[in-house]
Design brief:
The chain is mainly alpha-helical. The protein has 18 helices and no strands.
């Protein structure tokens, strides 16, 4: 039996990490593109706020409901194959979005393009399989920083929409206006599929190979997994919802043009994405529980302040604080998974990611309904505040229970002596 080559091992795992990061960034850009595209679509088709909310939400929905399945497939067949298939499957509806002629067509294609969101479960399982436990928090945080892809549309979307004529290019073969963006993204996803096939190790790791489906699903019976899922609603579901909703909020509440609204949303997205590796490092060093405590406390403080009408500068600063907490918290929450379930990362992250993303699906329509009912756009932050408060209460109850158990064990041990 040949001895593994440490240099080859390191090269392979870094190829998995950086290629999956790039592919995830592209897929996240596609998944979240309606946060910006939805505004010119709303103007073109005359959509109401509720219709706009559902257009954003259906893509998020389809990026949530298949995460468990995609995680299972990654554990069973290897992340490489599933990641490439995911890239291709999301590229096709991206091209279709560019050709949609009605709101109903857009809803269908937006739902299908949401397949891109399932890439998180695939990439998390893939990286966990390649990195040792002491490095998994940082590695999964670096991969998850691909959330920064959400800012890509914020950066280039308004400029591309303005630069490419509505009639398109090459006699309409390449669509113009807002339709050029999904067309461009479709090509980007196909290019990333080819790059993933060419650059990553052909012999993959499959932690669930040879195990039955029942064995793979066993961890889902534990309440702990569902608790982690609620945490992920706070740090990821709310992030997804806000990344889609904030451009509209800036336009409607502060009267800013779309380009400025997208630009002001970008720091929130960058903080919530690029701080994820730092959150993974903190979780590796101090443990996910301690880090998550601080994340929930900071989120509660910032969202409580956002319930009040504030100027645009104060609003941007408070939203940035939420983004910082979410960026760190996304990594600390996912770090729980390989600690408790090292052989079932794909399955558990699949469920945690699915329920977290489902939170992101329900929030935009809920934001719209609450805004209409209350007449106060700030009401959207009450949703995030409430979910965070419940999560912190549950986390604290678990910690108190663990401390009581430890005290009883210590007391029994001293009596035995």
């Amino acid at each position: 039996m040949s001895t593994p080559d440490p240099r080859r091992e390191r090269r392979d795992r870094l190829a998995v990490l950086w290629t999956s990061f790039a592919g995830f960034s592209a897929m996240f850009a596609v998944w979240m593109m309606f946060g910006v595209l939805g505004l010119p679509i709303r103007d073109e088709l005359g959509l109401s706020d509720v219709q706009f909310g559902w257009l954003v939400a259906v893509a998020i929905l389809n990026g949530a409901i298949w995460r468990l399945l995609f995680g299972l497939l990654a554990d069973r067949y290897g992340g490489r194959k599933v990641f490439i298939a995911n890239l291709i499957a999301a590229a096709v509806p991206a091209f279709l979005v560019a050709r949609a002629a009605s709101y109903e067509e857009l809803l269908v294609y937006a739902f299908l393009v949401g397949l891109a969101g399932n890439s998180f479960a695939v990439g998390s399982a893939w990286n966990a399989a390649w990195f040792p436990p002491a490095q998994q928090g940082l590695a999964m945080g670096l991969f998850g920083a691909g959330n920064v892809g959400a800012s890509l549309t914020k950066f280039i979307g308004p400029a591309l929409i303005a630069a490419v004529p509505a009639t398109g290019l090459l006699g309409g073969l390449i669509p113009g206006g807002w339709r050029f963006v999904p067309f461009l993204y479709g090509g980007l996803l196909l290019a990333m599929a080819l790059a993933t096939w060419a650059l990553t190790p052909r012999v993959d790791r499959r932690p669930a190979a040879g195990r039955t489906l029942a064995q793979m699903l066993t961890p889902l019976r534990e309440v702990r997994v569902w608790r982690f899922s609620l945490y992920y609603v706070v740090v990821f579901g709310a992030y997804v919802a806000l990344a889609s909703w904030l451009p509209k909020y800036y336009v409607d509440v502060y009267g800013l043009p779309l380009a400025a609204a997208a630009l002001l949303t970008t720091p929130f997205i960058l903080a919530s994405s690029l701080l994820r590796p730092f959150g993974g490092w903190l979780a590796d060093r101090y443990g996910p529980r301690r880090v998550t405590y601080w994340v929930f406390g900071a989120t509660i403080a910032a969202t409580a302040a956002l319930l009040l009408p504030v100027g645009v500068n104060a609003f941007t600063a408070l939203v940035l604080a939420v983004g910082v907490a979410q960026g760190i918290g996304k990594a600390s929450t996912i770090k729980y998974v390989p600690e408790y379930y090292p052989k079932d990362v794909g399955v558990v992250v699949g469920l945690v990611g699915a329920l977290g993303a489902l939170g992101g699906f329900f929030m935009p329509p809920l934001f719209a309904y609450l805004t209409e009912l209350s007449g106060r756009p700030q009401a959207v932050f009450a949703v995030i505040l409430a979910v965070t408060a419940v999560s912190l209460t549950w986390l604290h109850a678990v910690v108190m229970g663990l401390r009581r158990t430890a005290r009883r064990a210590a007391l029994e041990a001293s009596r035995a002596r």
